[in-house]
């Protein structure tokens, strides 16, 4: 696998539709909700140097973008996706690590967070130093949560007054010089996910 991971530029606009289609297909395959994004939104992220793209010989391999909230106090790494041809090769972790490091360079001192239902992403986040947190520790900016409107589980988020959903919130706080080591436990998180699905969907 000879993949190049770089900051997305205008020359990568042509991949925007494929990125959106891959995100949607992946969500359908996993049976999970996803906040849909338009090609125009993806292109805007590229234009603002707020996205990371992975390519192999000119072919789209993976993608992730950055969003900032509350004047850069909070940063979210969102939309992580790997093309089916490049899955199970460790590429997701490489992209996530790149966008995590780039976020710290572009937004020094920001708290970096994400919400996800994917156990693989939770594992990567945990390895990078994120820890699971309640939604109350994430940004309170309503425009972030409005971005969840395209998700099939948005009604659950609304009913729970934006305090919880099927997603798990994870946060990296750079002020924690020696963060508490959190051992990733797939069984525990899988069970938690099942409990959420049972009770929150009622």
TrEMBL record:
CDD domains: NAT_SF. Pfam families: Acetyltransf_1 (PF00583). InterPro entries: Acyl_CoA_acyltransferase (IPR016181), GNAT_dom (IPR000182). Coiled coil: none annotated. Gene3D superfamilies: 3.40.630.30. GO terms for molecular function: acyltransferase activity, transferring groups other than amino-acyl groups. It comes from Flavobacterium microcysteis. Keywords: Transferase. This is GNAT family N-acetyltransferase. Residues 11-151 form the N-acetyltransferase domain. The keyword Transport does not apply.
